[in-house]
Amino acid sequence: MVNDKDFDIVARNVILLLTAFHFNPEEAAPVMLHIWYSAFIPSQMLRLLREKLLPLVQDVCTKIKAKPAESLQVKTWIYDTRSLRLVLMRKQWDNLLTYFEVPKNLSVGQAHAVRAATMLAPGRRDYLDRALCNQPPSWRVCAMKFRNDGMLLPFGSSHTEFDTPNP
């Protein structure tokens, strides 16, 4: 069972599980990695999720649109010998659709600024320094690189295709 009080976490977990079930492992692994950890993803990755997974959620939303907003609605997807059963309120099913869209008016620059304000907040500098002080120097460099750019990639990898804020 996967549940959380924070629907952002629930939505991310649902997208991760649908990705694991719907794609072959070679395709699913990088998608899941970047959905979970990277602040920016390639636009083709988001397009792939929208083409393959969004219709699954839209189908449920279409079928339950007349139900009360607070009513629990169940959908079970079956993949070979595996199944995924998801129970959400109707309004949460509708909300899940928004996690396949980058918020309107959110540019890459704005997303980077919001992330930097959190990850590199001057008021939290002491906590960051304490976290880094016991790490080997090479780990510190990598940790700071991740804090600065927000993409989980091998050191020195190109970021050019990571052109879309992770919704």
Report on the architecture of this protein:
This protein has 167 residues and is mainly alpha-helical. It has one domain (7-165). The protein is built from 8 helices and 4 strands, in the order ααβααββααααβ. It has helices at residues 7-22, 25-37, 43-52, 54-64, 90-96, 108-119, 125-133, 137-149, and strands at 40-41, 72-79, 82-89, 164-165. The chain has a two-stranded antiparallel ribbon with strand order 1-4. The protein has a two-stranded antiparallel sheet with strand order 2-3. The longest helix is centred in the first third of the chain and has 16 residues, at 7-22. The protein is elongated and about 55 Å long. The mean pLDDT is 93.
Q: Work out the strand percent.
A: 5-15%
Q: Estimate the mean pLDDT confidence.
A: 93
Total domains, how many?
1
The count of β-strands is 4
Strand order of the largest sheet: 1-4
Biggest sheet statistics:
2 strands, antiparallel
Order of helices and strands: HHEHHEEHHHHE
Residue share in helix: 40-55%
Q: What is the radius of gyration?
A: 18 Å
Euclidean distance between termini CA atoms? 24 Å
Total of DSSP H or I helical runs spanning 4+ residues: 8
Q: Strand pairing plus helix content: what structural class?
A: mainly alpha
Q: pLDDT under 50 segments (min length 5)?
A: none
Overall geometry: elongated
Short overview:
This protein has 167 residues and is mostly helical. Helix content is 54%, strand content 12%.
